[in-house]
Write a structure and sequence with these properties.
The protein has 174 residues and is an all-alpha fold. It contains 8 helices and 2 strands. The termini are far apart.
Length: 174
């Protein structure tokens, strides 16, 4: 429930920003709603990996982004929101086993929400290539790789899903 409260707070902050803040507000509001109505998990990743997931979720907020650069993240944000909607009640920030979703963007890659987040950050980094942004991007990628590993271990039926959808983030690459 604390996670939902944090995302409601983010929704309010982002909505007040206007401009690109609105698409981010939609993402935050959707995350809050999905967390409130999420199914109870059958199992969860260890605490260390859950904390890492929450850290990686908020790391991008430390990036230096101007109004123009923020719009470079819109394609990735769109993919992220689509993946969140496809997950529905299976959404969570931390790796947990709810019900395995294989429809929508999850029929193309196994981690489309993470692919969308990466796409957003790459777009921002290309237009605002500061040392701070690069450092946050590297930390985010490392945390995301660990998050992917943790999720793949804890989600029931994942091995069969990996056979059906072989690509983690980018079709025909990885």
């Amino acid at each position: 429930m604390l996670g939902a409260v944090m995302f409601v707070f983010l929704f309010i902050l982002r909505a007040q920003q206007g401009g690109f803040g609105w698409p981010l507000a939609v993402q935050s509001g959707l995350a809050a709603v999905l967390l409130v109505f999420a199914r109870n998990p059958d199992s969860r990743a260890p605490l260390r990996e859950r904390l890492l997931a929450w850290l990686s979720a908020f790391l991008p907020m430390g990036m230096e982004v101007g109004r123009i650069q923020a719009w470079a993240g819109l394609p990735g944000l769109t993919l992220t929101i689509w993946a969140m909607l496809a997950l529905g009640r299976s959404f969570d920030v931390a790796p947990a086993s709810r019900s395995l979703v294989m429809s929508g963007p999850y029929s193309l890659v196994r981690h489309p929400m993470y692919a969308g987040e990466l796409l957003s950050l790459i777009g921002i980094l290309l237009l605002a290539p500061t040392a701070q942004n690069f450092g946050i991007f590297v930390l985010f990628v490392l945390a995301l790789l660990m998050r992917i590993r943790a999720e793949e271990k804890v989600v029931a039926g994942y091995e069969q899903y990996a056979v059906l959808v072989p690509w983690r983030l980018l079709p025909y690459v990885w």
